[in-house]
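Q: I'm building a small set of examples for a reading group on sequence design. Run inverse folding on the following structure and report the sequence directly after it, with nothing in between.
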């Protein structure tokens, strides 16, 4: 037969276990709530500091547009799209099609040479030479300027000279308000070359580089 203190202990033991379970459950819920709060705060702070739009300064975004050059590159000092001048004292080497203001005597005119135009491309086997046509144009003359086409010479890549045949008079005069077009043709080697307008003494006035392509 149990005594009274023992029966009291047995009655208290189940109640203590229930209170422990409830305490652990409440503590677990509190801990879970704290962890969720910390996680949410961490995600918010991380997004604010690592977002590319927020981190990049406005000046950097301005240089990220398509085709824009970085601001740290050096600026060009030579003007582009300009028309250059050429004379016997300062001859100029241009590419075919470029416009150059050529000075002869006291007058000058905007000059260009286009070509060579070849009769056919894609020939096989590749011929060593080809007929080629050039067109020389002078306009916007400041005054009467004489053009002697006998002083126009073609040089191939080996330095050999070729004299073009001019359609029409060899000596022409270009005047203000009246453009002048001169057609020339020659048989030249395929590949790069240069057509040069010279003075009577053989000094170059202006040169135009070209490539005779027949492949």
């Amino acid at each position: 037969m149990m005594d009274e203190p023992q029966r009291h202990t047995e009655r208290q033991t189940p109640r203590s276990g229930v209170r422990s379970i409830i305490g652990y459950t409440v503590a677990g819920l509190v801990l879970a709530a704290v962890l969720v709060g910390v996680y949410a705060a961490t995600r918010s702070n991380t997004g604010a500091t690592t977002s590319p739009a927020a981190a990049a300064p406005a000046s950097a975004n301005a240089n990220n547009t398509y085709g824009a050059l970085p601001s740290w590159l050096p600026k060009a000092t030579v003007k582009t799209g300009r028309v250059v001048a050429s004379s016997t004292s300062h001859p100029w080497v241009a590419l075919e099609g470029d416009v150059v203001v050529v000075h002869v005597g006291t007058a000058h005119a905007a000059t260009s040479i286009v070509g060579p135009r070849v009769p056919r491309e894609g020939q096989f086997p590749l011929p060593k030479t080809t007929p080629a046509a050039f067109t020389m144009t002078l306009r916007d003359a400041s005054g009467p300027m004489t053009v002697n086409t006998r002083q126009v010479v073609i040089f191939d890549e080996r330095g050999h000279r070729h004299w073009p045949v001019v359609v029409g008079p060899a000596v022409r005069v270009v005047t203000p308000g009246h453009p002048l077009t001169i057609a020339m043709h020659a048989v030249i080697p395929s590949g790069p070359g240069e057509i040069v307008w010279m003075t009577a003494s053989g000094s170059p006035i202006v040169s135009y580089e070209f490539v005779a392509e027949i492949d």
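Residues 7-11, 48-56 have pLDDT under 50 and may be disordered.
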